[in-house]
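so the lab meeting is tmrw and i was supposed to have these ready like two days ago... anyway. pasting both below. for each one the top line is the aa sequence and the line under it is the structure tokens. i havent really looked at them closely yet so no promises
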Amino acid sequence: MTPDQALALSPVIPVVALEDAAHAVPLARALLAGGLRTIEVTLRTTAALDAIRAITSAVPEIVVGAGTVLSAEDIAAAAEAGARYALSPGATQTLLRAGRDAPIPLIPGVATASEAMAGLDLGYRCFKFFPAEQLGGAEALKALAGPLPRARFCATGGIGPEKAPSYLTLSNVLCVGGSWVTPTHKIAAGDWKSIEALARRAAGLRVDP
């Protein structure tokens, strides 16, 4: 799977930090039932890798990405657990170079044109624009499209269902990431029907070219 293919799976990538791996499979099934084909499980909790393993084993129809990847070791662990791609909140030169030889594609985080240019120089084309709203939102990405026509973005950070369409209409945005699809309190309550409904709303945000 290429980074472009991963980011084109769904208009919204649900971003989740799972505290309990037992929630992983029913959550993935709810998202899939709502029409989303991928999920970003962030490596912020001790349950993350077990959650990735559980989803890839029980719900192979949904593609799992690993988020908050900070090192080559994180990428390797995520790949071993079954993740198909990785995203980082930012990128060091060490991480960018490690990502070129990684077993799964890395989508590095950028916040400036200079950081995107550094990634392009190393062969990257897809980036995570984070934190999107704090960096100027959709208007900032629109401004980057002219000088950086090869770059494509997943915008994440402060984006909800109301703001997502303004990003998804941009030619250089493949998708947005959002935790609004997977609210922590609904996961804790096992309210999978509500999450399925949120996923269906998110899946409906796709903008046809």
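ok protien two:
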Amino acid sequence: MPKKINHDLRKEKILKTALDVFAREGYKDSNLSLIAHECGISRPTIYQYFKDKEEIYYFAVKLVTGRMFKKYADYAWSNDENAMDRIFWICNDVLEYGIAHLAELSSLVDVMILMKREGTDFNKVILKRTAKLNILFKRLLRQGKDAGDIVSDINIEEITEHITFLLESFCLEAVFLGAENLDKSKDIIYRYLFIYKK
């Protein structure tokens, strides 16, 4: 009797393994044969799930960011802390996650640079993957404003852009300069957010 295969689990294993390979080898030097070998499957089997390395990378990023967003949404709506405290907790966790997975973050930057050179606008992919987080920040800011926890004359769109820009900048700094400034980065975000807290 043939062995029954859980295709969802296999697809997730390919994605997780691919992230490890990309982080270790770099995106450019990774290939489907290596990913297949480390998954314990054949290269043709990978083609049953993904058309190429770029698609694997896109879905791997989607898997990670989707799980992170679920964690942040669950946290944001499961407690009654001040909105700015919740936003800071999320920002803090993003930075901690980035540092804990610095090789994967470096691989993501490598992919972005490589695709930019090839004429692909990876920025659209990043914007799509972070859109839910931006919406979450906006909702929290509105909630805080309505509750009187945040100063009333704020521009929610602008503050959301600033938060996103700070997170992106600190993640890039960690990739290129190392994780030594994590506490400084957290402090800058903390000081920025709490300008608006009542």
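from a quick look at the 2nd one: The longest helix spans residues 53-77. The radius of gyration is 19 Å. will dig more after coffe
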